[in-house]
């Protein structure tokens, strides 16, 4: 059985750890609030720009735009996996990586050449450890990134797609649905996919000035940049929420451990006092 001194030392260590996890929880809570505000603020713009593209794409003469055109046979696919630079966020990174590996394996079964781009130190560490090849890696995307960072990625990917260096570009990230719901998803950013609901304005008598082709030519790059930026915003918000939850769980676990150790310490101390009393009583009885 541990001595009272050893138990006191453990209680002190756990209390110090609890202070750290509690501080990290508070920091993550503040960062999560800012990140979620950005996600919520940017979604109306993203939704409206998709709606406009749907209306434009419904026009027969623009439906064959290069960035909208699906290749009949996918020979080469680019997979972008977005993770965090840091850990201590529960299963956030593991879930995204699991989804990414599953997609890569699925492409390989279809004899599709896969080009992998990694965003985040955790993805890089995982692929290096597993000895899985990748074409490029980036570590500068964090909670301070802006639209310009996403724009650089999107412009590079649009160029690759336009030159037919790749036939499809997928982004795997954790999408923010609500404070209690974030899930890893796979979204195709190129070719631009138009849902039937987004084509619902086809029958309405819209007049476009200048012509639909010119508008789409200008609007599509903006939409692709916004889609990628939205993915990075969602990923950051999900990361901060996951870290807040992980740190809260760690803080709660530390509190439970402190209670258990305090109870153990009191029992050891009580046993020691009882033993000392028994020894005193026994000694007094022996003298008499």
UniProtKB/TrEMBL annotation:
* CDD domains in the record: F1-ATPase_gamma (cd12151)
Any one of the GO BP annotations: proton motive force-driven plasma membrane ATP synthesis
Give the CC-aspect GO terms.
plasma membrane; proton-transporting ATP synthase complex
Q: How does it sit in the membrane?
A: Peripheral membrane protein
Which key words are in the record?
Answer: ATP synthesis, Cell inner membrane, Cell membrane, CF(1), Hydrogen ion transport, Ion transport, Membrane, Transport
- Which family does the UniProt entry place this protein in? Belongs to the ATPase gamma chain family.
Q: How does it assemble?
A: F-type ATPases have 2 components, CF(1) - the catalytic core - and CF(0) - the membrane proton channel. CF(1) has five subunits: alpha(3), beta(3), gamma(1), delta(1), epsilon(1). CF(0) has three main subunits: a, b and c.
By what name is this protein known?
ATP synthase gamma chain
Q: Which organism was this protein described from?
A: Turneriella parva (strain ATCC BAA-1111 / DSM 21527 / NCTC 11395 / H)
Whichever gene encodes this chain, its name is: atpG
């Amino acid at each position: 059985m541990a001595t009272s001194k050893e138990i006191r030392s453990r209680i002190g260590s756990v209390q110090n750890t609890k202070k750290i996890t509690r501080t990290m929880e508070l920091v993550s809570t503040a960062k999560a609030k800012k990140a979620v505000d950005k996600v919520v603020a940017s979604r109306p713009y993203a939704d409206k720009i998709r709606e406009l593209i749907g209306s434009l794409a419904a026009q027969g003469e623009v439906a064959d735009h290069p960035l909208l055109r699906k290749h009949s046979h996918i020979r080469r696919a680019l997979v972008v996996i977005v993770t965090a630079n840091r850990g201590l966020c529960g299963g956030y990174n593991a879930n995204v990586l699991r989804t990414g590996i599953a997609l890569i394996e699925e492409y390989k079964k279809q004899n599709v050449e896969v080009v992998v781009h990694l965003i985040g130190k955790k993805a890089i560490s995982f692929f290096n450890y597993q000895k899985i090849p990748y074409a490029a890696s980036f570590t500068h995307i964090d909670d301070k990134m802006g639209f310009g960072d996403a724009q650089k990625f999107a412009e590079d990917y649009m160029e690759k797609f336009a030159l037919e260096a790749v036939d499809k570009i997928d982004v795997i990230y954790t999408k923010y649905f609500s404070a209690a719901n974030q899930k890893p998803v796979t979204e195709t950013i190129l070719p631009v996919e138009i849902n039937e609901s987004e084509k619902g304005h086809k029958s309405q008598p819209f007049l476009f000035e200048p012509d639909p082709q010119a508008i789409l030519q200008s609007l599509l790059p903006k939409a692709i940049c916004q889609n990628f930026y939205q993915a990075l915003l969602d990923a950051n918000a999900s990361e901060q929420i996951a870290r807040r939850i992980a740190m809260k769980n760690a803080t709660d676990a530390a509190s439970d451990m402190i209670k258990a150790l305090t109870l153990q310490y009191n029992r050891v101390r009580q046993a020691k006092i009882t033993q000392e009393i028994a020894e005193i009583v026994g000694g007094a009885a022996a003298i008499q």
